[in-house]
User: Which sequence fits this backbone?
């Protein structure tokens, strides 16, 4: 794909070579993310960061990534803080904000809304999550993390095994990750969820059409014993009709140190897009795993910075100039 000026709305727009390109640029961002080197390649550029649903890591890492490339961030957080609260349309908002920005990142509660916004924008728009639909940059950073973790054990993205666990119906990160996995070969996927929160059939069909082996299960212990990557997710309570309905599923598949140590293979890696639900009775990923070397959740969040820096550099056409505008710290 031609990255310059492109919107990033869905992982479906990527081919395998595009993924390689993003990861190659992300690798080069490491000294800048660590502040061993400083670049001003995006000096004068403005990111419009519009987050109309709660977020910690996506919003802040987009902002930090832009700042690390020398750019400035302008934020709108929550619908109430924007003129949408007064009835302004996505179209008008996009026309206005794109006049003030070089690139826009947007999270919105409704599926398809970021694409609608992007159609009216005069600058590239990156989807930071649209309802239960997609979260493409999370999937990229997840895949980047999986690649790094597998490579540390002499493995690659072709022919690995992953268990996705939890709310697979509403979890947009697993939808996007599954679609990205279709670009690779011979992946074995175990989908563990309550039947009511199963992965959408269209996504399962896509995985099978790509030649991957897909198993549907409700057995946590058995699933984690068969895989290289355990990808846990929280119950997406904001997508349920009521808190009570979400509570029916909370804590159904809880991974803790005792279960992980007893059933998982030695090199198995634990991932989670975060946030994890820290309320005691609901904890899908127990804090007793915090110091476990297999827990990659904070390596994921660190990798998110690299991947988002890479995307900004590619979309704004400066990936070849990052070193030119740099100095050692
Ligand atoms: N993973 C993720 O999207 O986290 P935030 O909701 O904190 O952005």
Assistant:
């Amino acid at each position: 794909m031609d990255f310059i000026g492109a919107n990033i709305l869905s992982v479906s727009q990527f081919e395998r070579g595009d993924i390689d390109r993003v990861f190659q640029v992300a690798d080069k961002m490491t000294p800048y993310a660590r502040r061993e080197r400083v670049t001003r390649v995006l000096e004068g550029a403005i990111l419009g960061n519009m987050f109309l649903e709660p977020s910690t890591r996506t919003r802040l890492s987009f902002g930090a990534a832009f700042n690390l490339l020398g750019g400035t961030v302008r934020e709108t957080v929550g619908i109430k803080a924007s003129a949408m609260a007064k009835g302004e349309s996505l179209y008008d908002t996009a026309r206005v904000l794109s006049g003030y920005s070089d690139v826009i990142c947007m999270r919105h509660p409704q599926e398809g809304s970021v694409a609608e916004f992007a159609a009216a924008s005069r600058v590239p728009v990156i989807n930071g999550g649209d309802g239960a639909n997609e979260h493409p940059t999370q999937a990229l950073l997840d895949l980047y993390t999986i690649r790094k973790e597998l490579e540390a054990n002499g493995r690659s993205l072709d022919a690995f095994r992953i268990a996705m666990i939890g709310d697979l119906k509403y979890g947009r990160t697993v939808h996007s990750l599954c679609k990205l996995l279709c670009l690779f070969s011979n992946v074995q996927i175990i989908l563990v969820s309550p039947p009511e929160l199963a992965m959408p059939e269209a996504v399962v069909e896509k995985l099978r059409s790509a030649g991957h082996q897909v198993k549907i299960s409700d057995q946590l212990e058995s699933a984690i014993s068969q895989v290289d990557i355990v990808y846990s997710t929280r119950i997406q309570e904001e997508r349920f009709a009521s808190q009570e309905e979400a509570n029916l599923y909370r804590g159904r598949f809880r991974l803790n140190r005792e279960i992980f140590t007893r059933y998982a293979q030695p090199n198995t890696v634990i991932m989670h897009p975060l946030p994890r639900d820290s309320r005691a009775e609901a904890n899908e990923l127990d804090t007793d795993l915090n110091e476990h070397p297999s827990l990659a959740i904070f390596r994921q969040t660190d990798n998110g910075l690299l991947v988002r820096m890479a995307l900004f550099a590619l979309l704004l056409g400066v990936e070849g100039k990052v070193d030119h505008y740099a100095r050692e710290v």
